[in-house]
Design a protein that fits this description.
Elements: E1 10-16, E2 21-30, E3 35-41, E4 46-52, E5 60-66
């Protein structure tokens, strides 16, 4: 869902395999600190990544690994 105002979160949802796998990501700009906050919900023991670039060569990427209490990005 697209944000209505600057600073409102942008929400993304991926339904894969007819809802068998659902991933969500919420991106929010924090004005006070000029940071971007990501909230990601993914199936355990899976990866989700977001890449920035025109192709896969020298692309900047943020990746998250869902692994219960040991999850990391």
């Amino acid at each position: 869902m697209a944000p209505e105002r600057a600073g409102d979160p942008l929400s993304l949802k991926w339904d894969i395999n007819n809802g068998k796998y659902t991933y969500t990501m919420q991106v929010k700009y924090l004005f006070a600190t000029e940071e971007i906050e990501f909230t990601v919900d993914a199936m355990n023991n899976s990866w989700i990544a977001l890449g920035f670039g025109s192709d896969m060569t020298d692309t900047d990427m943020i990746a998250w690994h869902a692994n219960g209490d040991d999850s990391y990005s």
